[in-house]
Amino acid sequence: MPKPTAAILGASSNRSKYGNKSVRAHQRQGYEVYPVNPKGGQIEGLTTYCTLADVPVESLDRISVYLPPDVTLGLLEEIAAKGCREFWLNPGADAPEVVERAEALGLHPIVACSIVDLGISPGDFASA
């Protein structure tokens, strides 16, 4: 059975940021993780994709967002085009206008912490 897939938008190489903790949490729970950050490079040993469109999977099981609302608004069309079973807007990314636009695009956002949904506390991860 293939691993579930997750793209983390706003993935970070800074281990104290939630965008990094999410990468690690999803890895820990057996996901094939695709970090997305315009800087590219590597995060937690994984190839980091500059855009969601660059992720080499047709449709993802989960897209989890750790971006400011104004940035997320500009990406919603790309997110809808990529497709996913679950679309997570984590605290800070969940502005009402983002939720409204996501719903209009048929994304059915889940407004909650995707790390906690995995049964993990973000505090479980050391920053270093």
UniProtKB/TrEMBL annotation:
SMART domains: CoA_binding
InterPro entries: CoA-bd, NAD(P)-bd_dom_sf
Domain CoA-binding: 1-93
SUPFAM superfamilies assigned to the protein according to its UniProt record, in alphabetical order: NAD(P)-binding Rossmann-fold domains (SSF51735)
A Pfam family of this chain: CoA_binding_2
PANTHER family: COA-BINDING DOMAIN-CONTAINING PROTEIN, CYTOPLASMIC PROTEIN-RELATED
Name the record gives this protein: CoA-binding domain-containing protein
